[in-house]
Specification:
Layout (H helix, E strand, L loop, with lengths): L22 E4 L5 E4 L2 H9 L14 H14 L3 H8 L8 H23 L3 H13 L4 H24 L3 H13 L5 H21 L3 H14 L5 H34 L2 H14 L4 H16 L40 E6 L3 E6 L3 E6 L8 E3 L8 E6 L2 E6 L3 E3 L2 E2 L4 E2 L5 E4 L3 E6 L8 E5 L11 E4 L3 E5 L6 E2 L7 E6 L2 E12 L2 E9 L4 E4 L2 E7 L2
Parallel strand pairs: 4-15, 5-6, 16-17
Antiparallel strand pairs: 1-2, 3-4, 3-22, 5-7, 7-8, 8-11, 9-10, 9-12, 12-13, 13-14, 14-15, 16-18, 18-19, 19-20, 19-21, 21-22
Length: 526
């Protein structure tokens, strides 16, 4: 064979010679040899030559792993290279230990290059990987401090824009990745004092806010001239808000002392506009809404039911010039009030998106509610598959807090804020129209019994599938959209604004309808 098998301690002659008796080499260069017994030879033959992967460890498994790790490192696949060099069967080999040391240093170098290229997350990831591969702690700490110096510029920029919360969020993220240095620590103290001053001002604690702002001003030079200027503007705003809030606080407490809840509600809302988290104003607002909502809205409502049917005076001109309920090309839009004799009143909303919110001057909600909720608190959207509820402020559906649009089902309970509750009904399987009933003690500013989310049709009648239940009616009446107008149809004869009709007739937003056993009227909502 011409090659001595030193792994077995066996020696063989050249290929053209007969095999010699197995011997054990002893001394340097095999100066002499001892015969090997058969038992010793069998024991050596039982020693495994391969590891579980099938590659010979005695022939240099570590070399194979090292070569593969080096190839991965040259290709920029440092995580793969480190994983190869950390395999348990070769991890302690001094060549692999040296390789991991070099890999850690290379990762630190690449992190610096990535930081210079504004690849912040890449630099952070490289330093975390270098730590996993036991990079020298001193060099790793130095690299992190240098990276912190770079990120300090981002924090100063946020403070210069008057955004301490954003600055703190960035610092917290860096600390989670062990990126810190004395400069970032000082900036953190500044941002915390600034944020706390703003929080105290929102609660109306202006004295405490001034103290915290003074601490922030003492630390501001570490953030640069722009931050100093921003803090000066904050102090001026603080003084102006305190001056504006003082008479509003007095007005609130005077209204509370008199027990004048409508006035207390107005004073609380005015104070909250200046001091959003003022504790007394918030408590007064909640209590005032509870007290005001308990009063029947009809006592102060600007709307009142009107006579459902009107016959023209003899000789009076016909009212054909009144505008019809026209709107977009796909049908009427907006809102109107539907008053059904002996049944009640309803606010009918025709648009596909209806906003629920707080009632009040300047409010834009389609469904205004007298409660402690936001002006635009939630929206109900009609789509092909039904309805979905979109939370715009704190909103619950069947007791579960919502963070994203959620489909509505018949019987669902919608809660806005902490107290305002509505029940969603979709009684007819052949109509997409739905009904909202206010189940809490809250009310709308108009004296209505519910809200109709009118799609193509609205059924007024005695059946369970009617959107407006009228048990005394013999047959249902259907309001429906046609073209750009609103129409109604009935089996029998009826009158619209005193003019006879048969089967069906168009309506205006102020029409009165009278038929056999029923009458209702429409009223526009301005």
């Amino acid at each position: 064979m011409g090659v001595a098998n030193f792994g077995r301690g066996l020696a063989f002659s050249r290929e053209d010679e007969a095999p010699a008796e197995p011997t054990l080499g002893v001394g340097l260069g095999g100066s002499f040899a001892l015969p090997i017994s058969d038992a010793m030879q069998r024991r050596w033959m039982e020693i495994p030559m391969v590891n579980p992967s099938g590659e010979s460890t005695m022939l240099g498994q570590w070399r194979i792993v090292l070569r593969r790790a080096e190839e991965a490192a040259r290709g920029g696949r440092f995580e793969e290279a480190g994983a190869l060099a950390s395999q348990p069967d070769v991890a302690d080999h001094y060549q692999l230990v040296r390789f991991r040391d070099r890999l850690g240093l290379d990762l630190i170098s690449r992190a610096a290059r990535r930081a210079e290229a504004n690849d912040a997350q890449g630099a952070i990831d490289d330093l975390a990987l270098a730590e996993r591969f036991a990079a020298p702690p001193d060099q790793l700490a130095e690299a992190r401090m240098e990276l912190a110096d770079r990120f300090a510029g981002e924090v100063r920029e946020a403070l210069a824009l008057g955004e301490p919360d954003r600055a703190l969020s960035r610092i917290d993220e860096l600390v989670r990745h062990k990126i810190a240095n004395p400069a970032l620590k000082a900036l953190r103290e500044l941002a915390e004092a600034w944020r706390d001053a703003a929080d105290e001002a929102r609660r109306g604690e202006f004295g405490r806010a001034r103290d915290l702002l003074g601490r922030a001003e003492r630390l501001a030079p570490t953030a640069g001239a722009a931050a100093v200027k921003a803090l000066a503007a904050v102090r001026a705003d603080l003084a102006a808000r305190q001056k504006e809030a003082a008479p509003k606080v007095e007005a609130l407490y005077a209204a509370l002392a008199d027990g004048d809840w409508p006035r207390a509600l107005a004073a609380a809302e005015a104070l909250v506009a200046t001091v959003p988290d003022h504790p007394a104003a918030r408590r007064a607002q909640t209590e005032a809404w509870r007290r005001v909502a308990a009063i029947s809205p009809s006592q102060s409502s600007p709307w009142s039911p009107r006579s459902p049917a009107r016959k023209p005076e003899p000789g009076a001109p016909a009212e054909s010039a009144r505008p019809m309920a026209e709107s977009r090309t796909d049908g009427p839009s907006g809102r109107f009030l539907l008053w059904v004799d002996a049944v009640g009143g309803y606010l009918a909303c025709l648009d596909d998106r209806v906003v629920l919110g707080r009632a009040g001057a300047g409010g834009e909600a389609d469904v205004p509610l007298m409660g402690d909720i936001s002006r635009n608190h939630a929206a109900i959207v009609r789509e092909a598959g039904g309805y979905r509820l979109e939370p715009l402020a704190t909103t619950f559906l069947n007791g579960k807090s919502l963070t994203e649009p959620t489909p509505l089902r018949n019987g669902d309970i919608i809660r806005l804020g902490q107290t305002v509750e509505l029940e969603f009904h979709q009684p007819s399987p052949v109509s997409a129209t739905a009904r909202l009933a206010v189940v809490s003690r809250h009310r709308l500013p108009m004296a209505v019994d519910g809200v109709l989310l009118m799609a193509e049709t609205c059924i007024v009648g005695p059946g369970r599938q009617a959107h407006v239940r009228a048990p005394s009616m013999a047959d249902p009446v259907v309001l429906y959209r046609q073209g750009g107008s609103l129409w109604c149809r009935s089996r029998g004869d009826f009158e619209v604004d005193g003019r006879p009709g048969s089967a069906r007739a168009p309506l205006a937003f102020d029409s009165g309808v009278r038929g056999d056993g029923f009458s209702f009227s429409l009223e526009p909502v301005v």
